[in-house]
Amino acid sequence: MSVEQNLGMRKTVRQFALAFVACLAVAGGAAAVASGDAEAPATHQQQMFADDVNWPVPTPAPTN
């Protein structure tokens, strides 16, 4: 192999390694964001059932 072929292969390998590291960083960031949302507490609007404090659930008054 000539010197030019070696330099070309090194450049190609370096570019693939850089792309691989960039993809891992993006995937790691996406995984961190996704796992952070999964543990978020439910807000009052997201609760499906009334809890012990808010039982019974008040019924809204009809409007005219």
Write structural notes for this entry.
The protein has 64 residues and is an all-alpha fold. It is built from one helix and no strands. The protein has one helix at residues 3-38. The longest helix has 36 residues, at 3-38. The chain is rod-shaped, with a radius of gyration of 28 Å.
What is the strand tally? 0
Strand content: under 5%
Secondary-structure element string: H
Query: Helical amount among residues, as a percent range?
Result: 55-70%
Structural class: mainly alpha
| Number of continuous helical runs | 1
**Sequence stretches where pLDDT stays below 50 over 5 or more residues:** none
Oligomer: single chain
Mean pLDDT: 76
Profile the largest sheet. none
The best one-word shape is: rod-shaped
- Compute the gyration radius: what is it? 28 Å
Give the CA-CA distance, first to last residue: 89 Å
Task: Summarize the topology.
Elements: H1 3-38
List keywords for this structure.
mainly alpha; single chain; rod-shaped; 64 residues
How would you summarize this macromolecular structure in one to three sentences?
The protein contains 1 helix and no strands. It is an all-alpha fold and 64 residues long.
